Recover the amino acids of this structure.
């Protein structure tokens, strides 16, 4: 099956203040790997389940390949879903598990019955199903496990069976609900590679739900970052990281978490913090605002803000240095530097920091991104 | 001291078990004793006159014992089959489907657990009499076809079946009935075994309802048969009576022993009793 698009138009669930989803519009392009990321409770799983047909939205429409599926049963939407707990059928062998989506589609009810089915199922269809099962199992390297029961498999192997069961039916799109969150860290990194490779090989549409921004950043073509039932930003991983649309996005994406510096926009557009001109201008109305600074955009500078170092965290190639502003101890900064360099603090554990002005992000009081200008002369 | 502490629970439990088994032991003892020894309070297992052959012979020959047993089997299996057929889908709906009024229905099921059969006996009897269904197998089975206890027991067990597997099955195209019988019930076989034992034992041993609806000795299940037996034949022959009782108890004992492991898993898993 050629990859299909998934379109959500004005999808909402719940009424009033405690809406789970607030009029979501989302277009997943054919063959795209789109991740829905957000904190738990942001509505991302509900959105996925609405696409799957497991839940009904209170408002809005869902289209798969341009076809309105709001009244279509989950099984008729031709979507494959991989669940967090893998949801393998416990009493079936791996072979039967993988064959189930095909058996349910291609065999009639009597042919699926345990004993009668042996006689009623047409041989050609069964041979074809066996071949598809073997192909899927080989693609995920689980062909040696076909006669085991799920209980006899490790977490990683169950994950592969769940993936094989999803891809065996060549669905219009794959839906994945935090499929890697039950794996240990090492295996998770490995399965990230495999999922990305699988997506490349199949060219299928993937809608992937995760709370892990690393998964979203590393695998996706695009990311939709959700918060409180809304999509905060939709963009490529690069756009999301380098041009976060809101403060929520900026805080969610990036390790370590983005540094936030409270600033003031003056009447003349001059941006200042603790009485210092930061060499940045904005056209936004005067008032308090927040400057977002990535850890790698901070550097030592004799002109900069004085900070006190609390902790240096070694991460192999990098070092994260946690510090607080001397002007205001409630402002915490994390600085990322190469582990080969000196920390560069004085004997009291103090140092001076400044940032790359062209890479700063300005957010107004409501958390929306605002444009910054860097006047020529102030390039410190 | 430590050894003592280890053995004390076993001693206590053994005493308790012995106490529970005493009536059965007495039944067995009486069934092999001669009439002269019946009222002997000694628990010594070997009677002075070994009358087992005579007692069991009378129990088997003087009344249609095979007929009683067959009646019991028909009634118990009939009840069990219909109970399972109706309770499993009901429990599945209450445990896994979302619909308005679900909580209320579940509350009603639990409330209905508190209604004893005796309080319904009169209307049921009148109804069956009007429908001319007294003295029939159907009359003996009908009041028990819908078992709220079964619904409750299966509900408790089905609730624990992972929702994600049910959803995966829906996406794969299973019908709700296939999910209910093929997946969810399959994951609750211990509960099915436990309920079967409960139901079979209860209805095999039931005297009250058969006595209300059946007066034809040919339809009597074992306990009612025993009653006819003691009335008609040998009001005083306790030896033969107990031999009959021992014969009717044996199938239930076997039934429990066969399903013992599932039965225990079933009741511990569902948190009932």
């Amino acid at each position: 099956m050629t990859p299909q698009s998934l379109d959500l138009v004005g999808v909402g669930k719940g009424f009033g203040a405690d809406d789970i989803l607030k009029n979501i519009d989302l277009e997943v392009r054919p063959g795209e790997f789109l991740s829905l990321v957000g904190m738990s409770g942001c509505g991302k799983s509900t959105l996925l389940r609405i696409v799957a047909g497991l839940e009904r939205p209170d408002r809005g429409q869902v289209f798969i390949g341009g076809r309105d599926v709001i009244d279509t049963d989950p099984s008729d939407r031709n979507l494959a879903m991989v669940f967090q707990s893998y949801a393998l059928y416990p009493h079936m062998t791996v072979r039967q598990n993988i064959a189930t989506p095909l058996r349910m589609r291609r065999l009639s009810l009597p042919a699926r019955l345990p004993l009668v089915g042996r006689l009623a199922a047409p041989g050609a269809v069964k041979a074809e199903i066996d071949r598809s099962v073997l192909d899927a199992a080989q693609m995920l390297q689980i062909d040696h496990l076909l006669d085991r029961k799920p209980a006899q498999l490790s977490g990683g192997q169950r994950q592969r069976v769940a993936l094989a069961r999803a891809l065996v039916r060549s669905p219009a799109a794959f839906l994945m609900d935090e499929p890697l969150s039950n794996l240990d860290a090492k295996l998770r990194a490995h399965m990230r590679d495999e999922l990305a490779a699988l997506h490349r090989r199949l060219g299928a549409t993937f809608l992937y739900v995760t709370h892990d921004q690393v998964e979203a950043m590393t695998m996706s073509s695009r990311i939709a970052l959700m918060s409180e039932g809304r999509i905060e930003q939709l963009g490529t991983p690069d756009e999301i990281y380098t041009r976060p649309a809101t403060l929520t996005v900026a805080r969610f994406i990036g390790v370590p978490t983005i540094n936030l510096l409270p600033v003031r926009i003056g009447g003349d557009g001059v941006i200042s913090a603790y009485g210092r001109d930061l060499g940045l201008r904005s056209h936004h109305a005067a008032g308090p605002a927040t400057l977002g600074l990535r850890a790698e955009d901070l550097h030592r500078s004799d002109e900069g803000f004085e900070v006190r170092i609390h902790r240096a965290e070694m991460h192999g190639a990098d070092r994260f240095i946690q510090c607080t502003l001397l002007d205001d101890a409630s402002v915490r900064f994390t600085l990322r530097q190469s582990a080969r360099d000196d920390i560069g603090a004085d004997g009291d554990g103090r140092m001076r920091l400044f940032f790359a002005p062209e890479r700063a992000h300005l957010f107004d009081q409501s958390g929306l991104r605002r444009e910054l200008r860097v006047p020529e002369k102030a390039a410190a | 001291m430590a050894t003592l502490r280890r053995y004390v629970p076993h001693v206590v439990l053994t005493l308790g078990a012995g106490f529970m088994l005493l009536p059965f032991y007495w039944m067995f003892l009486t069934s092999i004793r001669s009439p002269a020894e019946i009222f002997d309070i000694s628990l010594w297992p070997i009677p002075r006159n070994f009358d087992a052959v005579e007692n069991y012979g009378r129990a088997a020959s003087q009344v249609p014992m095979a007929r009683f047993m067959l009646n019991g089997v028909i009634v118990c299996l009939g009840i069990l089959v219909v109970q399972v057929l109706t309770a499993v889908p009901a429990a599945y709906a209450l445990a896994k489907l979302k619909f308005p009024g679900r909580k209320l229905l579940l509350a009603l099921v639990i409330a209905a657990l508190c209604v004893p059969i005796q309080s319904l006996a009169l209307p049921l009897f009148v109804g069956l009499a009007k429908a001319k269904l007294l003295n029939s197998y159907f009359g003996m089975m009908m009041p028990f076809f819908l078992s709220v206890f079964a619904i409750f027991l299966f509900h408790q067990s089905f609730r624990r079946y992972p929702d994600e597997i049910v959803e995966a099955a829906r996406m794969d195209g299973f019908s709700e009935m296939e999910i209910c019988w093929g997946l969810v019930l399959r994951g609750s076989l211990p509960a099915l075994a436990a309920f079967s034992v409960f139901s079979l034992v209860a209805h095999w041993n039931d005297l009250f309802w058969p006595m209300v609806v059946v007066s034809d000795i040919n339809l009597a299940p074992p306990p009612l048969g025993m009653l006819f037996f003691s009335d008609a034949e040998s009001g005083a022959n306790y030896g033969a009576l107990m031999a009959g009782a021992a014969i009717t108890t044996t199938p239930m004992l076997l039934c429990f022993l066969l399903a013992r492991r599932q039965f225990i898993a079933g009741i511990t898993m569902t948190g009932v009793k």
Observations:
- The two ends of chain B are 33 Å apart (CA to CA).
